[in-house]
Amino acid sequence: MLDNELIRYIKSNYLNFFNKEERLIYNSILNSQKLSKLSLEAKEIFSQNIEDFRCNNLQKEEENLFFEKVIFRIISEEKVYINRCPYCGTLARTPYAERAKCGHSWYNPNVKDK
Ligand SMILES: [Zn+2]
Which domain of life does the protein's organism represent (predicted)? Predict the structure, then answer.
């Protein structure tokens, strides 16, 4: 049930539910991703200029496990609204969307003041 789309959805819409430790790990993953695209020289500058720079070299599988664990926790503990298309179940981009990639549109009671 924890597909990549759902992980993306929670990461982009409910980052506020990541606790402090989870946020640190998430940031370090983002830092590693940024670093991996830089030249050696740029890497040096980048890592010297970021306060509390952290970069833990998690393997891809460890990263995936981390996100699965966090997302699962958030879904079970926090108030999240999984906004799926009522016709086909496709996940929308945000909790407020009334249209998904499938092209269907619907009425979303979460959306106020249209
Ligand atoms: Zn649909």
Answer: Bacteria
CA distance 69 to 73: 6
**Reported pTM:** 0.78
Q: Which residues of the chain have pLDDT under 50?
A: none
Do residues 11 and 59 both lie within one domain? yes
The pLDDT value given to residue 51: 57
Cα(30) to centroid of ligand 1, in Å? 32
Closest among 112, 103, 19, 107 to 69, alpha carbons compared: 19
Q: How far is the CA of 87 from the centre of ligand 1 (A)?
A: 5
Compute, in angstroms, the gap from residue 101 CA to the centroid of ligand 1: 7
Range of the domain at 93: 83-114
Residues 73 and 91 in one domain: no
